[in-house]
């Protein structure tokens, strides 16, 4: 049983290193559908269920302090590639399609919660809000919302399973949509848009070296500390807007500002953010176990309802606005899958459209956290 804080962090980082090594160097298709961070959560939770992590002040204080320090820094680094000027170039129709896609997912959570909340756990609204953040942004947004609302660890484990299963199935559906896109476009009477190839931030990155890594580590952690201090000085509003919310808002705005400057091209920001994400997920998972995993199917049903509502809204929107299937598929994948999968689905339609998928996903990297917090607020009053 581990009760020492340093050993605790060492085990988490060691597990993360093994998962990243195998997933990056392995040839199995398994890792295309099950992201490494999910394995990190499941593996850490399994170790905790087996009794590896003991309850001690050292472990709890170490994990909490590290998570509080790394969360704002991670969000800041991830937003380095979210160049608002490139996003504006997408045009109003594509931006509207993305907005409707994201809002349809939030509406799906509201509908599912209305029908099933009586059978869900007390903290389900918080966990589902975290899942909404993931499905309108990405894993980092899910972790950010969890850091604000503190959903019960076991329930958070359920929604992570839902995230993995639904994401995998939905990605297959989006790939399959290429085959009937022409028929769908004829049905909606869509005029196939001639999308201009977009330039994406990060293509001019230099070589990752000691200077770039030290610069990013030092700046991101300093910004995290400064934003945390500033957030503690601002007033709390309701149950959602607290010091952590203010901190995340501050680093999110700062990230958007930096994204349009040459500093955003400093090499290594995405890689460093992923290291932080793995460690944060490990800390969260170390407080959960699989003792109540039989409740997960109920949360899977919630996920299915959300997807049905999402798909229904998007089909109606496409018919009313004569929108082509490409926009719907890439916007949906950018929300639910994030930057890792949206470009892949876009390339299945046309390789020149890959930057559109990237920019869609980058919008979610900023908006997902706040959409997730909004979902928590709505579900709490339903």
From TrEMBL:
In this record, what's one Pfam family? DUF819
Chain ranges passing through the membrane: 6-23, 30-53, 94-116, 155-180, 213-231, 243-263, 270-286, 298-318, 325-346, 358-379
Lineage: superkingdom: Bacteria
Keyword terms of this UniProt record: Membrane, Transmembrane, Transmembrane helix
List the InterPro entries. Answer: DUF819
Q: What is this protein called?
A: DUF819 domain-containing protein
Q: What is the species listed in this Swiss-Prot or TrEMBL entry?
A: Streptomyces reniochalinae
User: What does the organism's lineage look like at the top?
Assistant: Bacteria, Bacillati, Actinomycetota, Actinomycetes, Kitasatosporales
């Amino acid at each position: 049983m581990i009760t020492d804080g340093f050993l605790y962090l060492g085990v988490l980082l060691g597990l993360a290193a093994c998962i990243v090594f195998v997933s990056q160097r392995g040839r199995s298709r398994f890792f295309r559908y099950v992201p490494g961070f999910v394995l990190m959560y499941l593996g850490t939770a399994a170790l905790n269920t087996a009794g590896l992590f003991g309850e001690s002040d050292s472990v709890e204080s170490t994990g909490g302090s590290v998570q509080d320090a790394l969360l704002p820094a991670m969000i800041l680094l991830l937003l380095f590639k979210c160049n608002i000027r490139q996003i504006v170039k997408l045009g109003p129709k594509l931006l509207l399609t993305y907005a409707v896609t994201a809002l349809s997912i939030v509406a799906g959570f509201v509908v599912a919660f209305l029908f099933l909340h009586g059978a869900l756990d007390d903290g389900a609204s918080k966990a589902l809000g975290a899942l909404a953040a993931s499905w309108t942004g990405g894993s980092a947004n899910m972790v950010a919302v969890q850091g604000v609302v503190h959903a019960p660890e076991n329930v958070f484990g359920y929604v992570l399973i839902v995230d993995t299963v639904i994401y995998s199935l939905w990605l297959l559906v989006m790939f399959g949509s290429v085959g009937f896109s022409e028929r769908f476009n004829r049905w909606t009477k869509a005029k196939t848009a001639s999308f201009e190839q977009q330039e994406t931030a990060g293509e001019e990155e230099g070589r990752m070296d000691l200077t770039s890594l030290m610069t990013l580590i030092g700046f991101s952690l300093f910004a995290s500390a400064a934003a945390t201090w500033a957030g503690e000085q601002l007033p709390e509003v309701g149950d959602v807007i607290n010091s952590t919310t203010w901190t995340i808002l501050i680093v999110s705005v700062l990230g958007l500002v930096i994204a349009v400057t040459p500093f955003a091209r400093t090499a290594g920001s995405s890689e460093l953010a992923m290291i932080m994400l793995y460690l944060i997920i490990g800390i969260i998972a170390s407080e959960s176990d699989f003792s109540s995993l039989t409740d997960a199917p109920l949360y899977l049903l919630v996920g299915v309802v959300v997807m049905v509502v999402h798909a229904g809204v998007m089909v109606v929107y496409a018919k009313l606005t004569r929108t082509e299937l490409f926009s719907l598929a890439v916007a949906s994948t950018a929300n639910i899958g994030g930057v890792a999968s949206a470009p892949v689905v876009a390339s299945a339609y046309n390789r020149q459209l890959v930057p559109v998928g990237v920019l869609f996903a980058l919008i979610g990297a900023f908006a997902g956290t706040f959409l997730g917090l909004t979902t928590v607020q709505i579900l709490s009053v339903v």
